[in-house]
């Protein structure tokens, strides 16, 4: 298959057929760099060489009643992680200041749990209001499944985006978690969309899913119209149900990121958790398809040093996004002027 022709078709509005998806994922390994090159044409069309910088803070660690098999914060995990209840408003604001100092455009406020308590929601709202008054950051919330009216409260407080990952495909979901459903996750994404908050939802690759599962994940995200899509690669943490799963090859991970760009051409695609472990020395190459990264650490695992990420972007000849609120069309207009 000519991947450049397929990329042109995508730019003209074509959605990959199931056979084209399988051809992409099953292609000989020597095709991966050509696929990545074609994905770059799509990425550059919508985002030029801009890279969106995100930074997160884990405001509440562990103590979660859900049984997600990949997660060190799960109720069934024995991982030796730090556990603490909700941070204070001031601690969250300090985290935002650090994100701004490093040049991040989006600050993600994350808390473990099925969903936020009234106290947790109030703390996030207070922090969001202060951050919005003092720092030029886009704010993303990630607090679990939202109850009625909670999305509206977050919107009023200044939350611009809300993350709730689908993590896997609908037909593989029961292999990953049993304490909530796939529809629970999609329902929260729909709630935030209805409240006028930008939806963020992504996946975890490497949990035993099939190629059909991967295709289904991307089709679900396309149907949900998620604006931002984190691509996580399983980091098998000791003490979790998936502790014995082995890392994937960097070339397979590159193909997945390229595939995501073909399937979700206009969206912010972020290489997220597990990129350091799975992409290893090929991390920079993923940026030819992805246009977004997390700086610093993740929830309970360490990330690459922020300074190394910034140097990676510089070495690629890419540029850090100047306006976190710009649309893809605005990025394109800037890139061609």
Keywords:
single chain; alpha/beta; ten-stranded parallel sheet; 13 helices; 10 strands; 42% helix; globular; disordered C terminus
How would you summarize what this structure contains?
By secondary structure, the protein is an alpha/beta fold. Helices cover 42% and strands 14% of the residues.
Helix and strand layout, with pairings?
Blueprint: H1 3-11, H2 18-26, H3 32-47, E1 50-60, H4 89-101, E2 106-111, H5 118-134, E3 138-142, H6 150-157, E4 161-163, H7 182-194, E5 198-200, E6 203-205, H8 211-224, E7 228-233, H9 250-263, E8 268-271, H10 275-278, H11 283-286, E9 292-295, H12 306-316, E10 319-320, H13 328-336
Parallel strand pairs: 1-2, 1-9, 1-10, 2-3, 3-4, 4-5, 6-7, 7-8, 8-9
Helix pairs in contact: 1-3, 3-9, 3-13, 4-5, 5-6
General description of the model:
- This protein has helices at residues 3-11, 18-26, 32-47, 89-101, 118-134, 150-157, 182-194, 211-224, 250-263, 275-278, 283-286, 306-316, 328-336; strands at residues 50-60, 106-111, 138-142, 161-163, 198-200, 203-205, 228-233, 268-271, 292-295, 319-320.
- With 337 residues, the protein is an alpha/beta fold.
- Helix 1 packs parallel to helix 3 (32-47), helix 3 (32-47) packs across helix 13 (328-336) and helix 5 (118-134) packs parallel to helix 6 (150-157).
- The chain is globular and about 55 Å long.
- Residues 333-337 have low confidence and may be disordered.
């Amino acid at each position: 298959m000519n991947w450049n022709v397929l990329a042109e078709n995508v730019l003209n509005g074509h959605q990959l057929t199931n056979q084209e998806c399988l051809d992409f994922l099953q292609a000989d390994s020597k095709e991966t760099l050509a696929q990545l090159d074609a994905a770059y044409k799509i990425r550059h069309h919508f985002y030029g060489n801009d890279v969106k910088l995100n930074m997160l803070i884990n405001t509440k660690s562990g103590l979660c009643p859900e049984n997600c098999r990949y997660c060190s914060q799960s109720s069934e995990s024995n991982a030796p992680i730090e556990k603490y209840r909700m941070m204070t408003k001031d601690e969250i604001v300090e985290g935002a200041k650090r994100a701004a100092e490093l040049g991040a455009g989006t600050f993600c406020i994350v808390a473990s749990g099925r969903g936020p308590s009234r106290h947790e929601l109030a703390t996030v709202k207070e922090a969001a209001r202060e951050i919005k008054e003092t720092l030029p950051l886009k704010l993303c919330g990630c607090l679990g499944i939202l109850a009625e009216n909670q999305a509206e409260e977050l919107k009023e407080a200044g939350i611009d985006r809300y993350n709730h990952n689908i993590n896997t495909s609908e037909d593989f979901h029961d292999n990953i978690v049993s304490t909530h459903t796939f529809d629970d996750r999609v329902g929260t994404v729909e709630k935030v969309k209805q409240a006028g908050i930008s939806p963020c939802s992504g996946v975890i690759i490497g949990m035993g899913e099939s190629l059909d599962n991967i295709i289904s994940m991307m089709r679900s995200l396309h149907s949900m119209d998620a604006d931002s899509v984190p691509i996580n690669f399983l980091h098998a943490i000791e003490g979790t149900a998936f502790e014995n799963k082995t890392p994937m090859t960097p070339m397979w991970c590159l193909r997945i990121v390229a595939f995501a760009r073909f399937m979700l051409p206009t969206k912010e695609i972020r290489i997220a958790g597990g990129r350091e472990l799975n992409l290893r020395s090929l991390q920079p190459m993923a940026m030819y398809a992805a246009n977004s990264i997390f700086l610093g650490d993740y929830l309970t695992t360490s990330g690459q040093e922020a300074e190394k990420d910034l140097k990676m972007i510089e070495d690629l000849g890419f540029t850090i996004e100047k306006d976190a609120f710009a649309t893809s069309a605005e990025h394109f207009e800037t890139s061609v002027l």
